[in-house]
Design brief:
The complex is a heterodimer of chains A (114) and B (115). With 114 residues, chain A is mainly beta. Chain A has no helices and eleven strands. Chain B has 115 residues and is mostly beta strands. In chain B, strands 2, 4, 5, 6, 9, 10 and 11 form a seven-stranded mixed β-sheet that branches. A four-stranded antiparallel β-sheet of chain B has the order 1-3-8-7, with no helix packed on it. The chains are: A mainly beta (114), B mainly beta (115).
Chain lengths: 114, 115
Protein backbone atom coordinates (compact mmCIF):
# COMPACT_ATOMS: atom_id res chain seq x y z
CA UNK A 1 0.00 0.00 0.00
CA UNK A 2 1.30 3.47 -0.90
CA UNK A 3 1.77 5.38 2.35
CA UNK A 4 3.56 8.43 3.71
CA UNK A 5 4.36 8.57 7.42
CA UNK A 6 5.64 11.66 9.21
CA UNK A 7 7.24 12.22 12.58
CA UNK A 8 6.96 13.76 15.01
CA UNK A 9 3.23 14.45 14.96
CA UNK A 10 3.84 17.78 16.71
CA UNK A 11 6.82 19.79 17.83
CA UNK A 12 7.39 22.87 19.97
CA UNK A 13 10.66 24.79 19.70
CA UNK A 14 11.97 28.17 20.78
CA UNK A 15 12.46 30.95 18.29
CA UNK A 16 15.93 30.85 16.78
CA UNK A 17 16.40 27.11 17.25
CA UNK A 18 16.74 24.54 14.47
CA UNK A 19 14.54 21.50 13.95
CA UNK A 20 14.25 18.50 11.66
CA UNK A 21 11.06 16.83 10.50
CA UNK A 22 11.01 13.28 9.16
CA UNK A 23 9.10 11.56 6.38
CA UNK A 24 9.12 7.87 5.43
CA UNK A 25 7.25 6.60 2.39
CA UNK A 26 6.39 3.32 0.74
CA UNK A 27 5.14 4.76 -2.56
CA UNK A 28 6.29 2.85 -5.61
CA UNK A 29 7.09 3.72 -8.32
CA UNK A 30 8.32 7.06 -7.11
CA UNK A 31 8.11 10.28 -9.12
CA UNK A 32 8.86 13.14 -6.76
CA UNK A 33 8.64 14.20 -3.12
CA UNK A 34 7.38 17.57 -2.00
CA UNK A 35 7.28 19.39 1.30
CA UNK A 36 4.39 21.77 1.82
CA UNK A 37 3.76 24.34 4.53
CA UNK A 38 0.16 24.83 5.56
CA UNK A 39 -0.78 27.76 7.75
CA UNK A 40 -3.97 27.41 9.77
CA UNK A 41 -6.98 27.99 7.57
CA UNK A 42 -4.94 28.19 4.37
CA UNK A 43 -4.13 25.83 1.54
CA UNK A 44 -0.74 24.09 1.38
CA UNK A 45 2.13 26.04 -0.17
CA UNK A 46 5.07 24.25 -1.75
CA UNK A 47 8.49 24.58 -0.09
CA UNK A 48 10.62 22.09 -2.04
CA UNK A 49 10.23 19.43 -4.70
CA UNK A 50 12.78 16.67 -5.27
CA UNK A 51 12.97 13.97 -7.88
CA UNK A 52 14.68 10.60 -7.60
CA UNK A 53 18.09 11.93 -8.57
CA UNK A 54 18.16 14.82 -6.11
CA UNK A 55 19.22 14.26 -2.54
CA UNK A 56 19.11 17.78 -1.16
CA UNK A 57 17.35 21.01 -1.98
CA UNK A 58 17.20 24.30 -0.14
CA UNK A 59 14.69 27.12 -0.06
CA UNK A 60 15.95 29.85 2.24
CA UNK A 61 16.02 28.51 5.79
CA UNK A 62 14.39 25.25 4.66
CA UNK A 63 16.57 22.35 3.51
CA UNK A 64 15.06 19.07 2.38
CA UNK A 65 16.96 15.83 1.96
CA UNK A 66 15.94 12.68 0.16
CA UNK A 67 17.32 9.15 0.39
CA UNK A 68 15.54 7.22 -2.34
CA UNK A 69 17.20 3.96 -1.28
CA UNK A 70 15.81 4.02 2.25
CA UNK A 71 12.70 5.99 1.15
CA UNK A 72 13.24 8.68 3.72
CA UNK A 73 13.17 12.45 3.57
CA UNK A 74 13.78 15.17 6.11
CA UNK A 75 13.00 18.88 6.28
CA UNK A 76 15.47 20.94 8.29
CA UNK A 77 14.45 24.41 9.43
CA UNK A 78 17.27 26.71 10.47
CA UNK A 79 17.01 29.66 12.85
CA UNK A 80 13.27 29.24 13.31
CA UNK A 81 10.95 32.22 13.32
CA UNK A 82 7.51 32.67 14.83
CA UNK A 83 6.07 32.66 11.31
CA UNK A 84 7.34 29.10 10.83
CA UNK A 85 4.51 27.92 13.09
CA UNK A 86 2.41 25.79 10.75
CA UNK A 87 1.75 22.25 9.63
CA UNK A 88 4.44 20.74 7.40
CA UNK A 89 3.22 18.06 5.04
CA UNK A 90 5.30 15.55 3.11
CA UNK A 91 3.72 14.60 -0.21
CA UNK A 92 4.86 11.87 -2.57
CA UNK A 93 3.87 11.69 -6.21
CA UNK A 94 4.00 8.26 -7.73
CA UNK A 95 2.11 5.00 -7.65
CA UNK A 96 0.30 4.36 -10.94
CA UNK A 97 1.82 6.05 -13.97
CA UNK A 98 -0.80 8.70 -14.58
CA UNK A 99 -2.79 9.10 -11.43
CA UNK A 100 -3.65 12.39 -9.83
CA UNK A 101 -3.11 10.95 -6.40
CA UNK A 102 -0.51 12.96 -4.60
CA UNK A 103 -0.12 10.89 -1.46
CA UNK A 104 -0.05 13.09 1.62
CA UNK A 105 1.41 12.43 5.03
CA UNK A 106 -0.61 13.46 8.04
CA UNK A 107 1.67 16.41 8.69
CA UNK A 108 3.86 17.65 11.54
CA UNK A 109 2.48 20.58 13.48
CA UNK A 110 5.28 22.95 14.41
CA UNK A 111 4.86 25.63 17.04
CA UNK A 112 7.63 28.20 17.45
CA UNK A 113 7.54 30.04 20.75
CA UNK A 114 9.26 33.34 21.60
CA UNK B 1 -6.60 34.49 -12.09
CA UNK B 2 -3.53 34.97 -9.95
CA UNK B 3 -4.17 31.89 -7.85
CA UNK B 4 -6.63 29.10 -7.18
CA UNK B 5 -9.81 30.54 -5.73
CA UNK B 6 -12.41 28.56 -3.81
CA UNK B 7 -15.85 29.69 -2.77
CA UNK B 8 -17.39 29.84 -0.32
CA UNK B 9 -14.61 29.90 2.24
CA UNK B 10 -16.98 28.57 4.87
CA UNK B 11 -20.23 26.68 4.52
CA UNK B 12 -22.51 25.48 7.28
CA UNK B 13 -25.33 23.19 6.24
CA UNK B 14 -27.87 20.94 7.88
CA UNK B 15 -27.58 17.19 7.70
CA UNK B 16 -29.35 15.88 4.64
CA UNK B 17 -28.97 19.05 2.57
CA UNK B 18 -27.22 19.44 -0.78
CA UNK B 19 -24.11 21.61 -1.15
CA UNK B 20 -21.95 22.83 -3.99
CA UNK B 21 -18.35 23.92 -3.59
CA UNK B 22 -16.68 25.92 -6.35
CA UNK B 23 -13.07 26.01 -7.53
CA UNK B 24 -11.57 28.54 -9.96
CA UNK B 25 -8.17 27.20 -11.03
CA UNK B 26 -5.25 29.20 -12.30
CA UNK B 27 -6.01 30.33 -15.83
CA UNK B 28 -4.67 27.93 -18.43
CA UNK B 29 -4.14 25.00 -16.04
CA UNK B 30 -5.61 21.86 -17.55
CA UNK B 31 -5.29 19.68 -14.46
CA UNK B 32 -7.55 20.21 -11.45
CA UNK B 33 -7.66 18.19 -8.24
CA UNK B 34 -10.03 17.99 -5.30
CA UNK B 35 -8.86 16.88 -1.86
CA UNK B 36 -10.58 16.56 1.51
CA UNK B 37 -8.76 17.35 4.74
CA UNK B 38 -10.16 16.31 8.09
CA UNK B 39 -8.99 17.97 11.28
CA UNK B 40 -5.42 17.01 12.13
CA UNK B 41 -4.97 14.94 8.98
CA UNK B 42 -3.26 15.40 5.66
CA UNK B 43 -5.39 15.96 2.57
CA UNK B 44 -6.97 12.90 0.94
CA UNK B 45 -7.44 12.65 -2.79
CA UNK B 46 -10.98 12.80 -4.15
CA UNK B 47 -10.87 13.38 -7.92
CA UNK B 48 -8.61 14.61 -10.70
CA UNK B 49 -9.75 16.35 -13.89
CA UNK B 50 -7.78 16.56 -17.09
CA UNK B 51 -9.61 19.24 -19.04
CA UNK B 52 -13.33 18.56 -18.89
CA UNK B 53 -13.07 14.88 -18.04
CA UNK B 54 -12.53 13.13 -14.74
CA UNK B 55 -9.30 11.19 -15.30
CA UNK B 56 -9.41 9.59 -11.85
CA UNK B 57 -12.38 9.68 -9.50
CA UNK B 58 -11.33 6.75 -7.35
CA UNK B 59 -11.08 8.90 -4.23
CA UNK B 60 -14.74 9.89 -4.12
CA UNK B 61 -16.03 8.16 -0.97
CA UNK B 62 -19.49 7.24 -2.26
CA UNK B 63 -22.15 8.17 -4.79
CA UNK B 64 -23.26 11.19 -2.77
CA UNK B 65 -20.16 12.95 -4.05
CA UNK B 66 -19.94 14.20 -7.62
CA UNK B 67 -17.79 16.77 -9.39
CA UNK B 68 -17.98 18.48 -12.77
CA UNK B 69 -15.79 20.70 -14.87
CA UNK B 70 -17.97 21.36 -17.94
CA UNK B 71 -15.74 23.88 -19.73
CA UNK B 72 -12.37 22.74 -18.52
CA UNK B 73 -11.86 25.61 -16.12
CA UNK B 74 -14.17 26.11 -13.12
CA UNK B 75 -15.06 22.95 -11.21
CA UNK B 76 -17.91 22.27 -8.82
CA UNK B 77 -17.87 19.57 -6.15
CA UNK B 78 -21.39 18.50 -5.30
CA UNK B 79 -22.40 16.63 -2.16
CA UNK B 80 -25.90 15.22 -1.80
CA UNK B 81 -27.65 14.26 1.45
CA UNK B 82 -24.79 15.62 3.52
CA UNK B 83 -23.76 13.76 6.65
CA UNK B 84 -21.91 15.03 9.72
CA UNK B 85 -18.91 12.94 8.65
CA UNK B 86 -18.61 15.08 5.52
CA UNK B 87 -17.45 17.98 7.67
CA UNK B 88 -13.93 18.83 6.55
CA UNK B 89 -11.91 21.34 4.58
CA UNK B 90 -12.24 20.71 0.86
CA UNK B 91 -9.13 21.78 -1.01
CA UNK B 92 -8.79 22.37 -4.73
CA UNK B 93 -5.50 22.47 -6.61
CA UNK B 94 -4.50 23.02 -10.21
CA UNK B 95 -1.39 22.38 -12.25
CA UNK B 96 -0.39 23.23 -15.82
CA UNK B 97 -0.66 19.83 -17.49
CA UNK B 98 -1.07 16.89 -15.14
CA UNK B 99 0.17 14.78 -12.21
CA UNK B 100 3.75 14.76 -13.41
CA UNK B 101 3.94 18.54 -13.08
CA UNK B 102 6.45 19.51 -10.46
CA UNK B 103 4.07 21.98 -8.86
CA UNK B 104 0.44 21.96 -7.89
CA UNK B 105 -1.09 25.16 -6.55
CA UNK B 106 -3.70 24.95 -3.82
CA UNK B 107 -6.62 27.17 -3.00
CA UNK B 108 -7.37 28.21 0.56
CA UNK B 109 -10.07 25.59 0.89
CA UNK B 110 -13.76 25.55 1.76
CA UNK B 111 -14.52 24.59 5.34
CA UNK B 112 -17.72 22.56 5.30
CA UNK B 113 -19.57 22.00 8.55
CA UNK B 114 -22.59 19.71 8.59
CA UNK B 115 -24.75 20.19 11.68
Amino acid sequence: KNQVEQSPQSLIILEGKNCTLQCNYTVSPFSNLRWYKQDTGRGPVSLTIMTFSENTKSNGRYTATLDADTKQSSLHITASQLSDSASYICVVSGGSSNTGKLIFGQGTTLQVKP
Amino acid sequence: GAGVSQTPSNKVTEKGKYVELRCDPISGHTALYWYRQSLGQGPEFLIYFQGTGAADDSGLPNDRFFAVRPEGSVSTLKIQRTERGDSAVYLCASSPTGPKDTEAFFGQGTRLTVV
